[in-house]
Write a structure and sequence with these properties.
Elements lengths: L1 H53 L13 E5 L5 E4 L14 H9 L1 E8 L4 E9 L5 E7 L3 H7 L1 H31 L16 H54 L8 H29 L8 E4 H19 L2 E6 L3 E4 L1 H17 L6 E9 L2 E8 L21 H7 L5 H11 L3 E7 L3 E9 L2 H14 L1
Parallel strand pairs: 7-9
Antiparallel strand pairs: 1-2, 1-5, 3-4, 4-5, 6-8, 9-10, 10-12, 11-12
Helix pairs in contact: 1-4, 5-6, 6-10, 7-8, 8-10
Length: 459
């Protein structure tokens, strides 16, 4: 980058220098031409006065410093010329400056002289006797002027180029230095050039995003390790029970009257494993967004009633009253996921309730959304645990969780299913006074149209 800046500055400097020289030469040429013209005009005035006063005597020993002087008669014949034989010269009556002088008293012109083979500037003055005095001087050309100042000009150009190279080197190094000193870990710490602030802001934003992504990856990795450990633990417990009971049965170490009890224990533990595996599979499916699940228009109130009917026996055994209230409310979503939300929230409400407690499900139509609320009169959730209850295998009361069973994945499934439907979850809970989960499902007709169109295209 330093090299490119150095080259750019040098090219710019040389270009400006050459342009300046051209302009200076043009100005000098115009200036010298004007001065030469003024000097020749003054000399013509003096020569005319001298010739009028002294006649031919005026020209004896006259030195005009290289100027050509001619005395022309009224008929155009040349009476005197200091550089050529007057008698051999042609008639000058047709010369522009001579004709103009005879008409106005003063004449001037510039043209190429065949006699002297160079470009000349002419000044003519009319004398009282009708004759004309004419002075001619070589007119400087741009090339002659350039050759005249070539040596000092070359010195100036050489010094200018050397100075330009030095300044370009120092300036390019100075320009690049703040860029080389940018701290990419904290690019906005010191911004030398405001023009770079948008770029540095983007870099800083990317750093922050990378940091957040790294922290998220570390967090996900920690969750994965914890999840793996929990899954291993949750699977090992029923497996050990099944293995132990099965070994006793296989070795004939169980009394005949206890065979049914052991078989029942093996069955319940295997059902627990099956339930755990099914929940893990469902949760993994939800992690991918459940894009392959079919959405449709469903009545959330009917789904809530179906989930309550499925849990009515469990509620009765736990001595908990299960009630559904509300109204018909249409939601565009995945029926099995909506059922899972209602089922898991009610199931938790029953398991962690007190005897003769109550679980109530209500469904309401609100403006632009549908509200699902599941309330219980159970043990409640402490403030410090509310942010973690949706974590996989997290349990508020571990001792009670072992007693009531369950996989510890119910609320995780609820959270992910809610995310699939873009629903929000609010928790209102007091330890010992119960818990209320309130979900708000948006009535998004636009999403329904998009999905319907996608479905039609696939068909």
């Amino acid at each position: 980058m330093t090299k490119r800046i150095f080259q750019s500055i040098c090219i710019a400097a040389v270009t400006v220098l050459l342009a300046s020289l051209v302009l200076i030469m043009g100005v000098l040429y115009d200036y010298f031409s004007r001065v030469q013209k003024e000097q020749l005009s003054a000399q013509a005035d003096l020569a005319a006065r001298g010739a009028a006063d002294l006649g031919m005597e005026y020209f004896e020993g006259l030195d005009l410093g290289g100027c050509r002087i001619s005395w022309i008669a009224a008929d155009g014949s040349v009476l005197y010329d200091n550089m050529s034989d007057a008698e051999s010269m042609e008639n000058h009556l047709d010369r522009e400056e001579v004709r103009e002088a005879m008409e106005t008293g003063r004449g001037e012109s510039s043209r190429y002289s065949d006699t002297l083979t160079e470009k000349l500037s002419y000044q003519a003055r009319l004398l009282p006797d009708g004759t004309v005095i004419r002075l001619a001087a070589s007119q400087y050309t741009a090339w002659v002027l350039l050759m005249g100042v070539l040596q000092p000009l070359l010195v100036v150009v050489l010094l200018a180029v050397l100075l330009s190279l030095l300044l370009a080197y120092r300036l390019s190094a100075r320009l690049v230095k703040p860029l080389n000193e940018v701290d990419l870990s904290d690019p906005l710490k010191k911004v030398e050039y405001e023009e770079l602030r948008p770029l540095l802001s983007r870099i800083d934003s990317q750093h922050r995003q990378l940091k957040r992504d790294r922290e998220e990856l570390e967090k996900n990795e920690e969750i994965r390790r914890e999840f793996t450990a929990n899954v291993s633990h949750e699977l090992k417990t029923p497996l050990h029970s099944i293995s132990g009971y099965a070994e006793l049965l296989a070795k004939g170490m169980v009394r005949p009257e206890d065979v049914e009890k052991f078989s029942s224990k093996i069955y319940s533990e295997s059902q627990r494993m099956t339930s755990l595996v099914e929940d893990i599979i469902e949760l993994s499916h939800l992690d991918t967004g459940a894009g392959d699940m079919k959405r449709e228009d469903v009545d959330l109130y009917l789904i809530a009633r179906t989930a309550a009917d499925s849990l009515s026996m469990a509620a009765k055994e736990a001595g908990v009253e299960l009630k559904v209230s509300g109204e018909s409310a249409r939601v565009y979503g995945v029926p099995q996921l909506l059922y899972g939300i209602c089922y898991n929230l009610c199931d938790n409400g029953i398991k962690y309730n007190r005897e003769k407690g109550r679980v109530e499900i209500s469904v309401r139509n609100l403006e632009g959304e549908v509200e699902l609320k599941v309330s219980d009169t159970g043990i409640g959730i402490p403030e410090e645990s509310r942010e973690r209850i949706f974590e996989r295998f997290y349990r508020v009361d571990k001792s009670r969780s072992k007693a009531v069973g369950g996989t510890g994945l119910g609320l995780s499934i609820v959270k992910h299913a809610a995310l699939v439907h873009r629903a929000t979850i609010d928790i209102d809970s007091e330890p010992g006074s119960g818990t209320s989960f309130t979900l708000h499902f948006p009535k998004d007709t636009q999403e329904r149209k998009v999905n319907d169109i996608s479905g039609n295209k696939e068909q």
